[in-house]
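Case study 2.
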Amino acid sequence: MKAENFCRELPQGYKEVYRIDAKSRKWSIIFTVGSFIMALAIILPCLVAVDFGGAGWSSTDIYIAAAVLIVSIVVYIIAHELTHGIAYKALTGSKLTFGISLTVAFCGVPDIYVNRKTALIALLAPFTVFSVVFCALAAWLYFVNPVYYGVAIILLGLHFGGCIGDLFTAILLIFKLKNGALLMRDTGPEQTFYLPEVS
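Prediction:
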């Protein structure tokens, strides 16, 4: 089953049709601005309606919540990339690469070319899993603790913003690169898409 999800070598007659390099200046700017806008679109409306001062929170409580937020962000980034890796490993069994740069954390399978379905599953796995986790956490904390509700909402917003590259690539695959013969090489920060040349 795994063998049908990828090719070890690019088949003859395939050519590159699109490339996304998250480390390039152009894509870094696009993804950074998109992330910021998406994160704020989630965070601001959710936090405006909450009364954070009514519960008598001390500055110590706020500092602890800030520390929890920072640790949670680091754990989330690692878990996000591991989720990509779990999906890729389950679907291909291939060697994974992980890394981080100033603008992007990544997981890739650089030694193979995955099909469109495998690419979509691996791209959307973290978005799906952590959207459910953070929405459920925020819904619960809304009734339990407004400060930690704020932490959960910030995590949800950063999650949506952090998925901008995954979502952009998935939308590209769904609406533009719809050909079932498509193959993608994912080195982590760079995805290259290939299609058979039309005769």
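The mean pLDDT is 91.
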